[in-house]
Design brief:
This protein is mainly alpha-helical. The protein is built from 3 helices and no strands. It is elongated, with a radius of gyration of 13 Å.
Amino acid sequence: MFPLLVPLLSIGTSLIGQITGQSSESKTTMLSTIQRLFESGDKEQLEAEVQRIALLAKANQTQADTTQ
């Protein structure tokens, strides 16, 4: 399909799995968004969404680290 986009989809999916404190509905929405962007072949938007998810995952990890 879009072989250059497959790693982005994989990274995004993995990052969503690492996020805690988000509702399953929110995670489903994130996953739907990256799948839609993958299917449309919109590399720039997919990269931007994966970066946004990465920031959420990092913030989530930072919060978890500070509450321990």
